[in-house]
Design a protein that fits this description.
By secondary structure, the chain is an all-alpha fold. It is globular and about 35 Å long. Helix 1 packs parallel to helix 3. It has one domain.
Length: about 90
């Protein structure tokens, strides 16, 4: 659970559209959040809900980096993201 104010995914058309657009970029195996919020997003996505434009850009970038069109496997993606999180001392 985030410690900042968040909005439900359906609180505005702009927020709903941003969530749907960024979600469409992710490979199918990432479709279900590990720790979903009540509205089906995740806490990290919800933490950006006050600024839908920032949410879209931040998570669309990540979605492109995880694209199945790239030559990396899911295991390689996970290894890279784990090392970045460890380096940044971030549990995400």
């Amino acid at each position: 659970m985030t410690w900042i104010k968040t909005l439900p995914a359906d609180s505005s058309p702009e927020l709903t559209k941003a969530i749907e657009q960024q979600r469409a970029l992710y490979p199918v195996e990432y479709a279900t959040p590990v720790h979903p919020t009540g509205d089906g997003t995740s806490d990290i996505v919800a933490s950006h809900s006050l600024i839908p434009g920032a949410l879209l850009h931040a998570f669309a970038t990540f979605g492109e980096l995880m694209s199945p069109r790239l030559p990396l496997t899911r295991s390689q993606h996970e290894m890279i993201t784990t090392m970045v999180s460890v380096t940044n001392r971030c549990r995400y």
